[in-house]
Amino acid sequence: MTTASMGLIGVGTMGSALALNIAENGHDIALYNLDPSTIDDLISGAGDLAPRLTKTESVEALVAAMPTPRAIVLLVPAGGPVEASIDALLPHLTPGDTIIDGGNSDFRDTMRRTERVEAAGFQYLGVGVSGGEEGARHGPSMMVGGSKASWEPLRPVLEAIAAKFEGDPCVAHLGPDGAGHFVKTVHNGIEYADMQMIAEVYGLLRDGEGRKPSEIAPLFHCWNEGTLQSYLIEITGKVLDGVDPETGKPMIDLIVDQAGQKGTGRWTVIEAIRMGQSASVIEAAVGARVLSSERVVRQAASKVLAAPDTTTAIFDEGDLESALMVGRILAYAQGFRILKAASEEFSWDLDYARIAEIWRAGCIIRSALLDDISQAFRSDLPHGRLILADEFASLLETHIGALRRVVAQAVTIGLPVPALSSAVSWYDEVRQARGTADMIQGQRDFFGAHGFRRLDKEGDFHGPW
Ligand SMILES: NC(=O)C1=CN([C@@H]2O[C@H](COP(=O)(O)OP(=O)(O)OC[C@H]3O[C@@H](n4cnc5c(N)ncnc54)[C@H](OP(=O)(O)O)[C@@H]3O)[C@@H](O)[C@H]2O)C=CC1
Ligand SMILES: O=C(CO)[C@H](O)[C@H](O)COP(=O)(O)O
User: Fold this and answer.
1) Contact yes or no for 75/10 (Cβ under 8 A)
2) CA distances, 271 to each of 77, 191, 274, 328 (Å)
3) From the CB of 290, is ligand 2 less than 6 Å away?
4) Domains annotated on the chain, with CATH
5) Which residues belong to any copy of the 6-phosphogluconate dehydrogenase C-terminal domain (predicted)?
6) CB 29 within 8 Å of CB 22
7) Closest Cα partner for 157 from 326, 302, 29?
8) Which of 14, 36, 48, 325 has the fewest CB atoms within 10 Å, i.e. the most exposed one?
9) 192-248: per-residue pLDDT in tens?
10) Is 184 marked active-site?
11) ipTM exceeds 0.95
12) CA proximity to 366, closest of 199, 240, 187, 226
């Protein structure tokens, strides 16, 4: 199999780091960026790797600088920039060339682009790359979508640059066209949920107990040594430790409380709802970012809307740790349920155990839990549901009481815990053998003659109203 030569468009945060990773793994790489000075900066700081990096001044020159077959990675913002890069590349490619979109593209765009590029006679891979700048530089987790014929020739280089979990490369071909970007989108949905629950616990300690960042950080450092061990818990402790060099104050106290978002969390929720799936914890996290942006309204409301009489409490640290544990399990469970629905809808045949495996290192949601999740998916899961696997059902049984106590305490003192409270509500909904949708059906039949099914006989019925 001929090894493809490597090229990259978009020498920004991710592109620069991935280019160095590719070079470090023994490949020459041609680079193009709208602002060429970025490439100069990259090359001048690349040390021993500099000879492997070639600056080009146009997309045409990039293609011309690469021996065939070519593999050209796009690391540009999702949407128009990806489209524009493909437009610019197509006239110059030759058969056997592959375009790899490594950004956070909407999987529907990736499906359409795959069709377009393949119709033009070339190959296309939509690759979700996770791990941020550090991951891209030293080993990201990569979720690949596209044809097997496009994947196989690039597999060695992608495996070489990927993060390794006990020697296993955190990259996998997950399905055709948009499958990789869909899995990355759901990865980010879970990321939003985990981040939000952590932020909520930080808020309970800051506003409920009045602790300073330096009094909260040690808790996260300690939790990172136990069952909560994960990248997000680790960096939370480090963020809390950060001191602003200008003022000497804790950095976190100076950061405006408005969260950015580029779309992947929202897309997860949109797709979940479209496929009839409940993703309440992820939805709560997206909603919280939206409300965070309404800072002026929140500040006005804080003066008008009544707070409870008691606004402080002491939280049990073990309960907080357990609450985060349960919330994380339930967020993963929702994410994997969305993946299952999409796999069925698009006939992707996603391998959930492998997805959990490639999330064990390199990516933002990597956590100690993922090894257990992959093992659970390798066994015969009752109803295909993670939360019904023996190990997870028993973990939930052990820790759910803590989540209840934390949420109850937070609600009593008026502190918002939208994701944690969604988690406990979802848990209770899922375990409710007889739910309350009988009332919804009665109401629907009352106002719209929609009919309902009965427990005691077959058929469609109307009520006596
Ligand atoms: N940052 C992260 O942690 C992660 C980001 N991603 C995704 O990777 C992609 C790149 O992100 P990131 O590196 O952070 O972004 P940056 O903003 O750091 O870099 C974007 C790059 O794209 C180039 N660019 C912008 N617009 C165009 C255009 N119209 N045509 C061609 N090139 C363009 C920029 O060029 P110039 O320098 O001239 O402006 C720059 O090189 C995004 O899809 C992002 O969502 C995925 C995982 C993690
Ligand atoms: O993909 C990522 C991490 O996995 C990127 O950092 C992404 O930008 C995060 O999403 P958002 O900007 O919406 O918080």
Assistant:
1) yes
2) 21, 16, 5, 20
3) no
4) 5-177 (3.40.50.720), 186-430 (1.10.1040.10)
5) 180-465
6) yes
7) 29
8) 48
9) 999 999 999 999 999 999 999 999 999 999 999 999 999 999 999 999 999 999 999
10) yes
11) yes
12) 187
